[in-house]
Design a protein that fits this description.
Elements (H helix, E strand, L loop, with lengths): L1 H28 L3 H20 L5 H23 L1 H4 L3 H11 L3 H5 L18
Length: 125
């Protein structure tokens, strides 16, 4: 069972790193070095949180992990629509920072004024 847990952890870590690398590659291709720097900072912050996570600080860390995930998801969506949207640099970063806390709420089809569900996915910082 422990071997299976380690394998899953490796897969999740690789999936996260591949996701970040894909975003970085796309931003490099678009010459959006300001947004690239932003993603690199998010990636480093994520690594820092994970390295320091423990049973004592897990519940404090989880909302920040979910916040990073939401930010990356928004950037991925913007990149998938980049031909139409043409959002770069500061505009992209400002959009992400203004929307990431409500991203999961909206993705679930809930209106922003509706009461949040009790799921941990809504605990975003």
């Amino acid at each position: 069972m422990e071997q299976l847990k380690n394998k899953d952890a490796f897969i999740y870590k690789e999936q996260f790193n591949n996701r970040c690398q894909y975003i970085k590659n796309e931003l490099t291709r678009l010459n959006d070095f300001q947004a690239l720097s932003y993603i690199e900072q998010l990636h480093q912050y994520f690594v820092h949180i994970i390295q320091d996570i423990s049973a004592e600080n897990f519940w404090h860390s989880l909302p920040y992990i979910l916040g990073i995930d939401s930010r990356l998801s928004i950037v991925e969506e913007i990149l998938s629509l980049q031909n139409e949207l043409k959002i770069y640099g500061t505009e992209l970063i400002n959009l992400v920072e203004s929307d990431y806390k409500t991203f999961n709420h909206e993705k679930m089809g809930l209106k922003l004024n509706e009461k949040k569900e009790k799921s941990l996915i809504f605990c975003v910082e």
